[in-house]
C-alpha cells in the first residue's frame, strides 16, 4: 500500500506575502499555513487584512500582519524590519500585491499608467530588493513574483496592465541571474484569469471574452495559483530559478 501522507512542503519556513488580505494572496497565505509556514502578511486594506489575519489564526496559523502600501518605500522597509524582529529570518517572499485596471489605449491615461506601475512595478521591485538584501546575507531564500498571461499575450483592455505585469517577468529573470550565486532563487507565476475580487471589477463582457480565450473554458481558482506558488517557494523546486510558470488553463499554449 502506498503512503499518501507527505511532509508539509514549507515546514518551519518564514514566508512574507504582500496583498494577502484577498484573492490570490489570501489563498496563498492559507496554503502556506497548511504547508507549515509561519507567515508575515501585509496589505493596504486595513479592515480586510484584519479579517484575513483572524481567519488564518482561527485555522491555527502563526501570523504577523502589517498594514503596508507597497508603493511606499518607508512602509515596505518597516514591513521587512518588523518581520525580521518577529522571526529573525525570511525564507520566502511572495510579491503578490497588484492592481488590475481595465483600459484600452484610448481609455488609458498617464495617471493610470503611473498608478498601475507604482504598485505592479515599483512595489514589486521594492519588495524584491528588500528581500534580496536579507536573503543574500542568509545565503538562502526564495522569491516568487506574480506576473500574468497579460504580460505575454495581447488582450483588449489591458493596454496598461499587460506592460505593468511585464515588470514582474523582467524582475524575475534579472533578480534570478544576480542572486543565483548567492543561494537565492527567484521565479514567477503567470496566472490566467482567476476568480478573485480584482476580476469581479472587470466588465461582464470583458470577463466573458477572456474566459473564452482559455482552452479549459473556465476561470482558475485562487487555490490553483497558490499551489504553484507553494511549489516554486519550496525546496522541491531547489534547481528552479528564473522560471515563469503559466497557470492558465492552456492560455499561453495557443
Ligand atoms: N485575478 C487574476 O485574474 C490575475 C491574473 C494574473 C495575475 N494576477 C496577479 O495576481 C496578484 C493578485 O491579484 P488578485 O486577483 O488576487 O487581486 P485582488 O484585488 O483580489 O487582491 C489584491 C490584494 O492586494 C492588495 N493591494 C493592492 N494594492 C496594494 C498596495 N499598493 N499595497 C498593499 N496591498 C495592495 C489589495 O488590497 C488586495 O487585498 C496581482 O499581482 C495580479 O496582477 C491576477
Topology, pairings included?
Elements: E1 14-18, H1 23-34, E2 38-43, H2 46-58, E3 63-67, H3 73-87, E4 92-95, H4 110-138, E5 141-146, H5 161-179, E6 184-191, H6 197-200, H7 204-212, H8 222-233, E7 244-247
Parallel strand pairs: 1-2, 1-4, 2-3, 4-5, 5-6, 6-7
Residues 18-19, 21-25, 43-45, 48, 68-71, 96-100, 119, 123, 146, 148, 165, 191, 193-194, 196-199 line the site of nicotinamide-adenine-dinucleotide.
CATH architecture: 3-Layer(aba) Sandwich
Along the chain, the helix and strand elements come as: EHEHEHEHEHEHHHE
The main sheet orders its strands as 3-2-1-4-5-6-7
Radius of gyration: 17 Å
Domain Ketoreductase: 13-192
Organism: Fulvimarina endophytica
GO molecular function: oxidoreductase activity
Family: Belongs to the short-chain dehydrogenases/reductases (SDR) family.
If you had to describe this structure to a student in words, what would you say it looks like?
The protein has helices spanning 23-34, 46-58, 73-87, 110-138, 161-179, 197-200, 204-212, 222-233; strands at residues 14-18, 38-43, 63-67, 92-95, 141-146, 184-191, 244-247. The chain is α/β, with parallel strands linked by helices and 254 residues long. The chain has a 7-stranded parallel beta sheet, sandwiched between helices. Helix 1 (23-34) crosses helix 8 (222-233). The longest helix is centred in the middle third of the chain and has 29 residues, at 110-138. The structure holds nicotinamide-adenine-dinucleotide. Nicotinamide-adenine-dinucleotide is lined by residues 18-19, 21-25, 43-45, 48, 68-71, 96-100, 119, 123, 146, 148, 165, 191, 193-194, 196-199.
Amino acid at each position: 500500500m502506498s503512503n499518501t501522507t507527505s511532509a508539509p512542503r514549507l515546514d518551519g519556513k518564514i514566508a512574507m506575502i504582500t496583498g494577502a488580505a484577498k484573492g490570490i494572496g489570501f489563498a496563498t497565505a492559507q496554503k502556506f499555513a497548511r504547508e507549515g509556514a509561519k507567515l508575515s502578511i501585509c496589505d493596504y486594506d486595513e479592515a480586510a487584512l484584519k479579517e484575513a489575519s483572524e481567519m488564518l489564526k482561527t485555522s491555527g496559523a502563526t501570523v504577523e500582519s502589517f498594514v503596508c502600501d507597497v508603493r511606499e518605500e518607508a512602509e515596505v522597509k518597516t514591513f521587512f524590519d518588523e518581520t525580521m524582529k518577529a522571526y529573525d529570518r525570511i525564507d520566502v517572499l511572495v510579491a503578490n500585491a497588484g492592481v488590475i485596471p481595465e483600459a484600452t489605449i484610448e481609455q488609458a491615461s498617464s495617471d493610470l499608467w503611473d498608478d498601475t506601475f507604482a504598485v505592479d512595478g515599483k512595489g514589486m521591485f521594492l519588495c524584491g530588493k528588500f528581500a534580496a538584501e536579507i536573503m543574500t546575507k542568509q545565503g538562502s531564500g526564495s522569491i516568487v513574483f506574480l506576473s500574468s498571461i497579460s504580460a505575454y499575450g495581447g488582450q483588449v483592455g489591458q493596454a496598461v496592465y499587460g506592460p505593468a505585469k511585464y515588470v514582474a517577468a523582467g524582475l524575475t529573470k534579472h533578480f534570478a541571474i544576480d542572486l543565483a550565486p548567492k543561494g537565492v532563487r527567484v521565479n514567477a507565476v503567470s496566472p490566467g484569469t482567476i476568480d478573485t475580487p480584482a476580476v469581479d471589477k472587470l466588465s461582464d463582457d470583458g470577463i466573458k471574452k477572456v474566459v473564452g480565450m482559455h482552452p479549459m473554458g473556465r476561470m482558475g481558482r485562487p487555490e490553483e495559483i497558490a499551489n504553484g506558488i507553494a511549489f516554486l517557494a519550496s525546496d522541491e523546486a531547489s534547481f528552479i530559478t528564473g522560471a515563469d510558470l503559466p497557470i492558465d488553463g492552456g492560455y499561453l499554449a495557443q
